Amino acid sequence: MKNRLLFLILLLQYSPSFSQSITELFRKGEFGALTKYENKYESLADSELYMVGFAFFRTGNDASALKFYDLSIKKGFTNSVVYFYKGLSLLYTEKFDDALKEMNHALENAPDNQEYLSGKAEIYYTIGKKDSALILFKKAASLPLSFPDCFYWVAKIYLEKDELDSSLKWYYAAVKNMPKNNGYYSTCLLSIGSLEFSHTKNYTKSLAVFQKALELEPDNYDMYIKFMKCYNENKQYHQADSIFSIVQTLYKSGKIPEKLTRNKMILFDEYELNGQIILVHKRLETPEKLLDAYYKGYLISKTHDKIEREFVLEKTAEEIEGIKYIFCENVRDKFDHITYSLGWKTEQVPITEFKQAVNAAISGELTPGAATKFNFGK
């Protein structure tokens, strides 16, 4: 008797048919429980078969999802939604022609459905027909608002086409039309901030947008890098240094991800010179040993695929005449290290002075062994 009672308890615990109906499980989003009906398909109604198929879709099993969608349709469930999600599962299993057929079937009964039209556009995007996808995503954006993701996709495609003004416009439209809990909302904010920084060079707008993004993702430590770059390029150097001090504290407590640090350094500034990007990294720890870098500046190629030149402000072996740091260059292709007649006596070196030295070296105004008129620290 005791064993029989235990069996009944376990049966009630693990069999969904004894607890909640399929509709209740579907409404509550308990998709794992729904998939347990896999072997009971013969007793399920047409709409219930769709719900189980959707549960498999949400748990990443597109093959089983397709099986149940077909069973649902065969049994008489012809709501457009089943064709839409069948199209998505076919898309994710790379059966693109069949996916388009199902999306078109869904759109026959719901031509003004923003999500369905976006689904068709996503298929075109996936197979590389970006212009066709763009037309459909823009058309979807003109329909009654129910699926604001289409605004993100328009912005993304314009960005990939290097049409930056249009991309920025649509990213703004995306954040205006989508709720903050949308999966693309933070991505749109970051894209706006990056475009305002690099394209329009409106650092004040960039800062404001990054601040909103940080409020949504307080543990996104990459955001502090964006703040420092914006403050520096907006000539708000004190604020940039204040953020750097916060980053140092986080670094010492082990909260800054290793991917953001490189040889105990972190990206501190980014600017352009003659159409090329220069990245400046700053050391997170006080330089103490010979060759410890205070700053490193990287001149990026115009094709953005390699580092052309690398400049370093490094610790001297001995403080000759009070010089604590000297300006150098690592010649990457020759594995050579050259020095310039340029040093600093101060413990702290402003970013503006390092950038001035880098710019002078790139222009040829400053050469190895050049005159000391650039000795900012004297």
What is the topological layout?
Blueprint: H1 2-14, H2 22-28, H3 31-34, H4 46-58, H5 62-74, H6 80-92, H7 96-109, H8 114-126, H9 130-141, H10 149-160, H11 164-177, H12 185-198, H13 203-216, H14 222-233, H15 237-252, E1 261-262, E2 265-273, E3 276-283, E4 293-300, E5 307-315, E6 325-331, E7 336-344, H16 351-363
How do the strands line up in the largest sheet? 1-2-3-4-5-6-7
Major sheet description:
7 strands, antiparallel
Radius of gyration: 29 Å
The total count of strands amounts to 7
**Terminal-residue CA separation:** 94 Å
Summarize the amount of helix as a percent range: 40-55%
What order do the SSEs take from the amino end to the carboxyl end, as H and E? HHHHHHHHHHHHHHHEEEEEEEH
How many helices? The count is: 16
**In what range is the share of β-strand residues?**
5-15%
Low-confidence stretches: 1-19, 370-378
Structural class: alpha+beta
If you average the pLDDT, what whole number results? 90
Tell the overall outline: elongated
Supply database-style keywords.
seven-stranded antiparallel β-sheet; alpha+beta; 16 helices
Characterization of the model:
- The chain is of the alpha+beta class.
- It has helices spanning 2-14, 22-28, 31-34, 46-58, 62-74, 80-92, 96-109, 114-126, 130-141, 149-160, 164-177, 185-198, 203-216, 222-233, 237-252, 351-363; strands at 261-262, 265-273, 276-283, 293-300, 307-315, 325-331, 336-344.
- Strands 1-2-3-4-5-6-7 form a seven-stranded antiparallel beta sheet, covered by helices on one side.
- Helix 9 runs antiparallel to helix 10 (149-160).
